[in-house]
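Q: Structure tokens for this one, please.
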Amino acid sequence: MPGLIVGDQHDDLTSAVQQIILSSSESDYLDQLIPLLRNAHTQTKVTPLINALNHVSADREAEIERICNTNHQEFISSVQQLQSVREGTVTLTSEIMQLSRSIEASTEKLAEQKKALVDSRGVRQNIDDATQALKDCLEVLRLANQVHDLLGKKNHYAALRALDELQNVHLREVTRYKIAEVIERSVPATQALIAEAVMTDLNTWLYRIRETSQFLGEVAFYHTEMRRARQKRRAEGDAHLGTAKLNSPVELVADEAEEFDILNNDEVQVDFSPLFECLHIHDALGQMDKFRADYAATRRRQKDLLVPQTLNLLDEEANALSSLLEGIAGFAIIEKATMAKTEDFRAQTDVDELWDSMCQSAITLISSALHTITNDEALLRIKGVIALFIQTMDSWNYSVAALDALLLTVFAKYSSLLQTRFSDDFAEIVSTDDYMPMPINNADEYTRVLSVSFYSPPPDEETGLEPKPEDLEYPCILPFSQMYPLVCIDIRNFMNQIYLFSDDYASLRHASIIDTTLQSMLDDLLVTNVIRSLLDRLRSQYPGQIVQILTNLDHFEAACAEIEDLLLSARSAPTGGPLSLRATPAFTDAKEAAEKRIFELVNSKIDDLIETAEYDWLSSYAPQQVSLYMQELTRYLSNIMSSVLLGLPYTIKDMIYYTALQHIAENLLALPLDPAIPRISSEAARAYVMDVGHLVSFVEGLEAADRPEVLLEGLAELREVVDLIGCAARGEGEVFFDQRVVAEGRFGKVDKLKGAELLEKVEGRREVGGGGGAVGAGGSSALGLATAGPGTAGGVGIEDGHGKKAGTTLGDFRDRLGQFGRRG
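A: Here is the predicted structure, written as tokens:
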């Protein structure tokens, strides 16, 4: 096999040499020869190449010799040429060898240099790679350190952005290095550090916000008060704006020029940057749900810390309540502002739940402490704070329905305290009154009394106008007692203090309730504390006191109409109909009770006086003067008219006097009709007629202002009965049955049976003697009446002109009365 391989190589070299020799030009020859020499030198084939050249040369010589043998001359020439060629070949071979050695030496040097170059390039690349890797690692480390530096500077969002850039950009460039893995593992921990740091700052912010909430609420309350004042000034300047309430569209538009940022002003500044930073960071970390839940839980805990366990409402300035409501207001304003400044962070339901919880806690505290309040002024202060709180929070669109209900609870307590206090005042006024007409000493006092009383003095008789205070003579007397103006003052004060409760926000929401409560309580005060107290005093036995009570009741009844008008004009809510106090008919009924009581006292006195009448109905003595009881009776009537009843209105006074005269008439009529009196002598009849005449004369002699013509109507029946008695005493009793007289109405008011009975009693005593004027043995009188002698069979007899007695019993008169009735 080795020999075969060597032979093949020789043949290849020989073929190559022959191919070179056959080149068409010298340049082709050299171009082919030089690579062959280089390959032979490189592959250590120089000797085979020489052998191949020798072999080719021998072949050429053999061919030349053959050719020469054919053509010697040409051969010789060819040999010479060949010799020349051979010499050239030898020379060339020498040069080739030299060149080969030179090329070999150059090639070795070049290879060494190339190797050195390649080695240097590798080192340089390694250096460059190491340098770049180092730079990349240093950049990663710088960014990692920058994250912690930013954390130290509390620039949390920038730190998170740097960490995100480090993780998503720079770490990708050094993933093949161990440092990338180390830093990659530290990224979650760094993110947790950032989240913890930003939450620490947020908790600090939340703590500061909680501490600032009360002051923020105080500023909000002050701003609401300023809005109230501006709206009040606008309402005073423009009546159309007077109906616009706080937080109404009209008020909001009118107040637009007064811009005021509750969260950023000279007094308080609330910076939401920590919250925004926390939101951005947790959003970037993909932890928004967790952060939202944690924030909501923190706010709930802060809400619980905001509401105390107990509340003291006894502070004169209501500082504890103000602090509580200011804190709640500030807390709720922060919640609304957070909702407005963020998106999908605070749910409306969560904010409403916090608000409702705070309101309910505050309402529970206030309601449970209300029982400790016994001063209505303290309740007014409490109401003022609550109303200010409601109006402030209403401007932030919070639901205030529960607080409205709390205001009603406070109002119920307030009105109850007022009712108790004014009930005591009314009771004291009624119990300490002197029940005498009220004296006025000067014009100033007169003006003050009229200014507070529901009273208009009667007009002057000459001018028809209300008299001026300076024109009156002092001291003067007003008809009512001092209790009336005092009660009027209390009524006005009570109304004013009730409406003090509704002077701001309360009048908007609960005007109708307040109006209704005021009317009901005013009715209760008047009915329970005035009317009933006065009715209790009607048990008095002093007519003067009863008359003064009646006078007061009359003025109270008249005052009710003015009170109704005052209530109607003061109402905040429009009403659909007129207003009517229950006290008005109650005063009317009380007046009737007082009138009845006066009737009872007057009639009782009349009864006592009339009971003292000592008529001797069978007397034969004709008195020369009016009976003592009648003098006392008319003197009593004169006294009550001039003193006791003087202050009463004419209508009431006339009615009392008229009723008293009716009662007198009934009692006087009952005297001769007493069944115990069978007969009446003419002298007794004359005395009776004289007494009644004195009474009638007394009435007729009254002043025109007392309207005697009206009062005489109450004595009409009595006067006709006395007329009939007089006729009977004169023996003219038949006139009672005269149709013509009846038609004239002379005895129209006399009861027929009573008239017949009286005729029998009086006529039964008349005896007719000779000449019509003789007096029988039984005695006589100037009227020709005589007592009956024995033998009249217990009846009443009248002797005719012949001395015969005709029995005219009561039954005869009743028969005649029946016939009279049939004739009529």
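A few notes: DSSP finds 27 helices and four strands in the chain. The two ends are 195 Å apart (CA to CA).
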